[in-house]
Give the backbone structure.
Amino acid sequence: MINVGIVGGTGYTGVELLRLLSQHPDVSVEAITSRSEAGVKVADMYPNLRGHYDRLTFSEPDAEQLGAMDAVFFATPHGVAHALAGELLEKGTRVIDLSADFRLRDADEWSQWYGQPHGAPGLLGEAVYGLPEMHRDAIRQARLIAVPGCYPTAVQLGYLPLLEAGLINPEQLIADCKSGVTGAGRGAKVPSLLAEASESMKAYGAGGHRHLPEIRQGLGDIHGQAVKLTFVPHLTPMIRGIHATLYGQLNADPQDLQVLFEQRYANEPFVDVMPAGSHPETRSVKGINTCRLAVHRQGNTIIVLSVIDNLVKGASGQAIQNLNLMFGLPETRGLEAPALMP
Ligand SMILES: NC(=O)c1ccc[n+]([C@@H]2O[C@H](COP(=O)([O-])OP(=O)(O)OC[C@H]3O[C@@H](n4cnc5c(N)ncnc54)[C@H](OP(=O)(O)O)[C@@H]3O)[C@@H](O)[C@H]2O)c1
């Protein structure tokens, strides 16, 4: 049995880790932290988990307790993993960080976007970007994983086959993305109120969102050199889900795009290339670790539609996919249930 701890257990990605791990036959959650709910039983706070974690209680983060685990997930705001990851790694605990702390390789760039100094630049060299469809072998060897962000996952998986094949102009990429409100976390914020977010839709971060440098870095790795990307996120009245509409301009004779996508993802357990002409819906991935893709063409423009659940393939499910790889388990272990419908 793999013993794990979760730092930040009361947030949306923390409780999603608990829900998914309750079905994982090889993992036992032995520690879960919340400073504000310390002493409260998990099942008292989250009745959906009654019967699954009846002996588990939220506690203050404690490096000794967490350092006794085989792996610790950080489901916390940025900066928290910076402070604790080094100590845990020294104790032999593997770290899977859902925040942005180790996603950007350049500490100065991270500081510019997050408005504070990078708290652990010495660990950046060994952090592995946890997108299995790109970095599976490195993840297997890793001690420290930076789980990709939700928008970055949907966008990179959509562009991956096209950039690898050199089919689109890397200077003219446009990602028009929509997210459900859980993407902003569980903390009380005015824009997330029902009366603010429902029956309405708005763009945000159009002048530059924190996920932009992460997506640029990832697409640049795929392409082999820097790309130019316009990325505009939108807030939509959904609870879960990311929908990315990705545009690219053909710069080479297109092969059969459908075949290109199907072949690239033929062996990927969590990428589903839909039949030609499809329009994937966010509700088709509700609660599951799958990214569903469809590829279309209008003249010289390629359009890829990419949907994920922001809390699963966009965060907690992908974190467990990484854990499975790190511990030599089948990659799909604990992640096999079908999506919720409707
Ligand atoms: N929501 C998404 O769709 C999504 C997707 C991908 C990645 N992420 C990333 O995943 C991380 C967690 O997101 P979330 O949406 O689950 O956040 P959230 O709902 O705001 O929850 C944050 C959790 O972190 C704990 N926490 C806050 N400050 C802490 C500190 N200084 N030390 C220890 N624990 C602290 C909170 O509990 P206490 O304050 O009680 O300790 C809470 O349990 C963020 O970095 C986010 O960017 C989120």
Notes: The pocket of NAP is lined by residues 7-14, 34-37, 61, 75-78, 80, 98-99, 149-150, 182-183, 185-187, 310-311, 314-315 (CB under 6 Å). DSSP finds eleven helices and 13 strands in the chain. Residues 150-164 form the longest helix (15 residues).
